[in-house]
Amino acid sequence: MNAMGVTRMERNLAALTACAVLFLAVAPAGAHHSFAAEFDVKRPVKLRGTVTKMDWINPHSWIHIDVKDPDGMIVSWMVEGGSPNSLLRLGFTKSALPPGSEVVVEGFQAKDGSNRAVGQFVAFADGRKLFLGGSAPGAHGDSGK
Amino acid sequence: MTRRSLATAAAAAGIAAMMAAAPALCQDTASRAKSAVKAAARPVPLPRTPDGHPDFEGIWTNATVVPLERPASLAGKEFYTEQEAAENSRRVLGISSWERLGGQAPEHYNMSQYGLDLSQVKVAPTLRTSLIVGPDGRIPPFTPEAQKRNAERAARNRGHQFDGAENRPLQERCLLYASEGPPMTPWSFNSNLQIVQNDGQVAILQEMIHSVRIIPIDGSIRASPHLAPSIRQWMGDSRGHWEGDTLVVDTTNFTDKTAFRGSTAGLHLVERFTRVDSDTILYEFTAEDPATWVRPWTAQIPLTRIEGPIFEFACHEGNLGLANTLSGARAMEKAAEESAKKASK
């Protein structure tokens, strides 16, 4: 406790409050729909699979992957990502994620238990993140290294 | 340099460049109408159409690091200094949009991967601490009538939010985004618009979600009256006229389906477009609805020029999220029923 009678905990609380205010002081980050309503935060998934296609559609892109389950069976999953408009504007094309690419998806499974997930982080199997998460093949002016 | 750092550097450069123009954007409410006069005094003349009016044509963004309402920590402080504004921009752009969602949506995808982060686009700078002007910087309080109306609406919806598609928000149904208005307010990504203009009309296309307003421009509001009161439209009925070098757009005839920030179909909106310099339009709106707010309120949002192009945002095309949300709700209900059955045994 210092001379003004403020304990460390009180200072920490004050700092936390200040941070909360600062976070409120910025423009909102919004989403098209409630992700909490579509995906289950209690069902985290990590999928390793092969891209079969990517839907470059709005309001969200969808990456289709085939995943081998523990029994060796192939299971098809759909992975929800962001609007493709900005990717196109920044020079990414369909060749940025060709079918056959090996990817790793970290996200959460759909609440209805279907094989759909939000792709919170999506990376190539060698660790390179997709699109602007790192260099990616197909990006204009980018060697992919 | 990585693509991300290039984008961040570009955003920072944009802010620095526009800070130079910021003084024209930071005048107080009473003197803001003089913006155009100041701009006209600049050595480089503003672009004009063949009929002599300011030319607004181009692709613009209203992406911003500034919130609509002023946070309590900045109460009474309407403007940052240039240094404070630069620090605020650095701080905001240093936190990704996904990080800012935080506990609000821990399931959300990381927007940075898709170029949807604020730090990856050009933002329109301002010295304002909130987009809403005035000493308070906040939306005025609801009238007692509006409080009652909103409480009744909330009570009606409670427990029925997932009954069917018609119970979901308009934007989740891809009908109209809250940012489209009018008034046009920033969205967290693809916050872009295109203006096309001739001597009798101005058309505004908003990328989110590809709505277009075609606004007739006449000599005065009297020369081009609004539609009959019986005709109500989702985006209202907009009529434009010139006040000097400012395009003033008056909008009425709203429906009660859109409810801008809790408003009624009686919302009366006045938007003002003033070209401040070659890269900036100052967009201002005043919203008035005596059935909703105790007084009218005004916001100023700078629009800054971007290269484009704008792409179509065909929201219905792949709106799988709506169906998934409803099937998720059905699955949750079923699980709850089964668990209740087990508990009763």
Describe this structure in words.
The complex is a heterodimer of chains A (145) and B (345). Chain A contains three helices and five strands; from the N terminus they run ααβββαββ. Chain A is globular. With 145 residues, chain A is an alpha+beta fold. Chain A has a five-stranded mixed barrel with strand order 1-2-3-5-4. In chain A, a hairpin with a 5-residue loop joins strand 4 and strand 5. Chain B contains six helices and nine strands. In chain B, strands 1-2-3-4-5-6-7-8-9 form a nine-stranded mixed β-barrel. In chain B, strand 7 and strand 8 form a beta hairpin. In chain B, helix 1 runs antiparallel to helix 3. The N and C termini of chain B lie far apart (64 Å). The N terminus of chain B is likely disordered. Chains A and B meet through helix 1, helix 2, strand 1, helix 3 and strand 4 of A and helix 1, helix 3, helix 4 and helix 6 of B.
Give keywords.
heterodimer, A: alpha+beta, 5-stranded mixed barrel, 18% helix, globular, disordered N terminus, B: 9-stranded mixed barrel, 23% helix, 19% strand
* Secondary-structure content class of chain A: alpha+beta
Radius of gyration of chain A: 20 Å
C-alpha Rg of chain B, in Å?
Answer: 22 Å
User: Strand order across the biggest sheet of chain B?
Assistant: 1-2-3-4-5-6-7-8-9
The helix content of chain A is 10-25%
Number of DSSP-assigned strands of chain A: 5
- Name the quaternary structure: heterodimer
The biggest sheet of chain A amounts to: 5 strands, mixed, barrel
Overall pLDDT of chain A: 76
Helix content of chain B: 10-25%
Series of secondary-structure elements of chain A, N-terminal to C-terminal: HHEEEHEE
Number of separate strands of chain B: 9
